Amino acid sequence: MRVFANANFPFLHWRRRAYILTAVVLAVGFGAMIRNVLDPDIRNWQNYGIDFTGGTLVQVRFEDPTTVERVRQVTGNEWEIVQFGGGNEYLIRLGTFDQGTETDARRLVSGALARGYGADDFTIVRTEGVGPKVGSELQRNALIAIVLSLGATLLYLAFRFEWRFGVAAVLATAHDILITLGFLALIRTEISLGSVAALLTVVGYSLNDTIVVFDRIRENLAAGLRGQTYMELLNRSINETLPRTVLTGASTLATLFALLIFGGPVIRDFTLVLILGIVIGTFSSIFVASPILNYIESRWPHQRGGTGTAASATKRPRAAAF
Fold first, then answer.
1. What is the pLDDT of residue 98?
2. Is 55-130 the same fold as 11-36+135-321?
3. What pairing do the DSSP bridges indicate for beta strands 80-83 and 122-130?
4. Residue 43: left if φ>0, alpha if ψ -120 to 50, beta else—which one?
5. I need a labelling partner for 73 at 20 to 30 A (CA). Which of 144, 168, 264, 311 fits?
6. Which of 276, 157, 145 is nearest to 200 (CA)?
């Protein structure tokens, strides 16, 4: 079975609608980041987890159901408390870390909960400690990893294709990262090392999807425009790769949704970032990367031989590129 075998959707003609949608989503994401900075409980553009902020984390399992409000009332307002996994498990984060803090944190949390619940009504599942210096280094290294991956992509595509393909792919990938981060800020999910790993995976997936489209564009350009404008050639290339794009994205999302539902809380954030990134990456490979390539071609046309040249494609007014 071949879905969309004869697809002929005018994707490039819908690009202005895509621009509006992208602008709205980015604005909402940036607004969520500003809200997080102003929130006294977060005070950062993302809700960084203990991996990045430093501190000590204590996971507690209660014998009987309870609530975040009840746990906070018992322990006081100095600790961050969130529900984790099942209804009876909670994460308590202490904002300081010293040598031996894990033992101290276990003792402090146990003492506070024992006074409010009883010593036999809960179990300390685990404790984790990360120093603030390590957390800041992890933030910096995560940013460096993303920037280096984009730089390497630009160089590879400039060598494999042309510089214009590399620029378009990097801008589309940066678009994917910004929207994913904006959505994570909106839902205030905790950013951990797993989230960064998922974000880098999204970068790879998005680039792969974009390169598939660009490879078909290059093949069609080698055959000549054949009376088509450059925009029409781009649109035809997207439609020709649409079956692969849809089937790959759908099969990947089916697996990820199964992980999201049955995988448990440990990999939930990782899976959520992947789902967001794949949806956004598929969108950008169609509605962001190719329109950017069309705009670059309209501003800096590349003369080609064959039946119909890029020059014929640029006879239209430049404003039509957007």
1. 54
2. no
3. unpaired
4. left
5. 264
6. 145
CB 84 within 8 A of CB 66: no
Q: Per-residue DSSP letters for 224-236?
A: --TT--HHHHHHH
Mean pLDDT, residues 226-233 taken together? 86
**Can you tell me whether residue 98 is helix, strand or coil?**
coil
In CATH terms, the fold of domain 11-36+135-321 is Multidrug efflux transporter AcrB transmembrane fold (1.20.1640)
Q: 3-state class of 190 per DSSP?
A: coil
Task: Give which of 299, 93, 149, 85 is closest to 310, Cα–Cα.
Answer: 299
Residue with tokens 């590129």: 321
If one compares 66 and 158, the residue with the highest pLDDT of the two is: 66
Residue boundaries of the structural domains of the chain: 11-36+135-321, 55-130
The mean pLDDT of 51-73, rounded to a whole number, is: 82
Q: Into which CATH architecture does domain 55-130 fall?
A: 2-Layer Sandwich (3.30)
Segment 30-44 shows an average pLDDT of 87
Torsion sign, CA atoms 42, 190, 193, 153: negative
Q: Is it the case that residue 1 has pLDDT exceeding 80? A: no
In angstroms, rounded to a whole number, what is the distance separating the alpha carbons of residues 234 and 226? 13
- Tens of pLDDT, residue by residue over 182-222, are 998 998 887 877 888 888 888 888 888 888 999 999 899 88
Angle between helix 15-38 and 163-187 (nearest 10): 50
Q: What is the DSSP string of 30-91?
A: HHHHHHHHH-TTT-SSS-B-HHHH-EEEEEEEESS---HHHHHHHH-SSSEEEE-SSTTEEE
